[in-house]
Write a structure and sequence with these properties.
Glutaredoxin, five-stranded mixed sheet, two-stranded antiparallel ribbon, 4 helices, about 30% helix, about 30% strand, globular, AhpC/TSA, thioredoxin peroxidase activity, oxidoreductase, antioxidant, EC 1.11.1.24
């Protein structure tokens, strides 16, 4: 049985591939707040909107000292294309491995759409403090207005 993560808990350790072929780990976030948003798939309407919304607000997140990271199971190459096509300024990371971060957090799970059941990324966002603890979780995110809501939470955290 996997652990359930909630506000106040230490965010789990992770290693994910970045579009440039490098890696991103929890240790890389030390000393700085972070927003990690999980989204289903590059180049889809809702995910594109969400990534563009966070990109638009990136200067405000930077001013607040917060690192923005989008995570899906898409490949590094697909992330490169997504960034280039939409001029994205947020960092992206690939959580491709089974048993990866999205599995650990429970944001990779059963979804239903038009009567079809399948496994997929459940759009969710985590705000972490500078010590890697979870300050806030947004489960089952609706894209419209979400980036602004997260920015507001960052400013009041």
């Amino acid at each position: 049985m996997s652990k359930s993560y909630g506000e106040g808990d230490a965010f789990p350790d992770f290693t994910m591939e970045t579009p440039d072929g490098g890696s991103l780990t929890k240790a890389d976030l030390a000393g700085r707040k972070a927003v990690i948003f999980f989204y289903p798939k590059d180049h889809t309407p809702g995910c594109t909107t969400e990534a563009k919304d966070f990109t638009e607000l990136k200067p405000a997140f930077d001013a607040a000292g917060v690192r923005l990271i989008g995570v899906s199971k898409d490949s590094a190459k697909k992330h490169q294309n997504f960034i280039a096509k939409h001029d994205l300024k947020v960092e992206l990371a690939t959580d491709a491995a089974e048993g990866g971060l999205s599995d650990t957090l429970g944001v990779w799970g059963e979804k239903k759409n038009y009567g079809r059941t399948y496994m997929g990324m459940i759009r969710s966002t985590y705000l972490l403090d500078s010590e890697g603890r979870i300050l806030r979780i947004w489960p089952k995110v609706r894209v419209k207005g979400h980036a602004e809501e997260v920015l507001e939470a960052v400013r009041s955290a």
